[in-house]
Amino acid sequence: MEDLLKYYISWRLKSLRYKNVAFILAIAVIWMLTPLQAIAAVNVYANGQQVNFDSPPIVDASANRTLVPFRQIFEVLGAEVWYDSVTNSSFGKKDNMTIQLPVNEKVAYKNDELITLDVASQVVNGRTMVPLRFISETLGCTVETQNTSSNLEIYIKTDNLQSNMRMLTNIKTDSNDLNFIVELEVEDGVNIIHELVNPERLAIDLQNTNNNARDILDLNSPLVSSIRTSQYSSTTTRVVLDLKKDVDYHLEQNKDSLVVNITESKQPQSSEPPQQETPGTGNKLIILDAGHGGSDTGAVGYSGKYEKDLVLQITDKLKTALENSGYSVMLTRSDDTFVSLENRVIYANNTNAFAFVSIHANSFSGPSAQGLEVYTMYGADHSLAQAVLDSILAKTGQINRKVKEAGYYVIKYTKMSSILIETGFISNPQEEAFLWNEENQNKIVQGIVEGIKKYHP
User: Fold this and answer.
1) What is the model's pLDDT at position 296?
2) Which of 27, 103, 111, 114 is deepest in the core (most CB within 10 A)?
3) How far apart are CA 394 and CA 384, in angstroms?
């Protein structure tokens, strides 16, 4: 009887042990099949200051890698950031380093070098998440982790992060009958502006900037009710302009200040169609807009020549090239005449054109800035802009300043696909000479035509 009892007890213990092993294996299988885990207690610090992400970090357990929202981590580390819908990639640029992270691919590009990653960038709950360690170390930072009983602590350290910081020291305002002007006393650097709604606001993110300015409240302005500042992240100061109505705006970065010029937005009203008959088939019609004109000279180049004259030359050449390629073209101006922004938009919207292309030349406070950039409206499709940018660069070999978003009037209110091309910086003596050269103008024109053909054959 005693032996029988011992056998029974031994059998029960083995049975319980097998069940526990099966249970543990089942949990392990479930854990392996769900490698992405949102960890509530992951804390990230950049040079001692905690980074407050708008979406919680994700830990990929299979690769033991932490992913964070791409925009915030790039901005915290002082990089310019953008997203390209054509290549489905996140980009960050700091100094001479550009990082490209294609979504859902275990690769990245460090400038032109292909890097294999342990984990892919991916979209989680509407946020593009990217590997924190790879970005930080590629931008010259060191990354240390520390596990506690309840938290995962990640520390990012870099000497450059603090030594290169700007300082927002003061905010001044001025106004006249037409404009409200905000001057932010901050050195030249990367600034990103966002249009926010409900309520209407403009948010200006000053990257690599500490905040030492006070809020300006209860402004006596019909356009802006108050100006607020905050240290949005460890390296970003956010300036928020609370708006009373819809506005248009323009930013001008000087050596020691950023000037924001704000005017009331006069949305174009419907009007009679243009007197000029719309030529050709509607789906082949393009509106070309030579910037400025007449009393509006635009930027003044290093040599004293005017932007308005340069862009009219390029636009005339572009009209001929497009017509030779089978497109129909209408111009917002064909000579040195002033045409208001509102009338340009009305003119375009009273046609059935498939595209609006505005030609400009860039300018900066210093002579070193150079390169090509193409703008679309905030949130607009980038396809036309990217095709044109890529095609011009292939012809000219200019510095690539990327596709960017802005609230320029002529791309904000036109109803068709609209882009604004900054062909180069006439404040740079070499690039100004490049742009006035007829052979180079022809290359720019050929690039625009080829880009339009890619977008709309």
Assistant:
1) 86
2) 103
3) 16
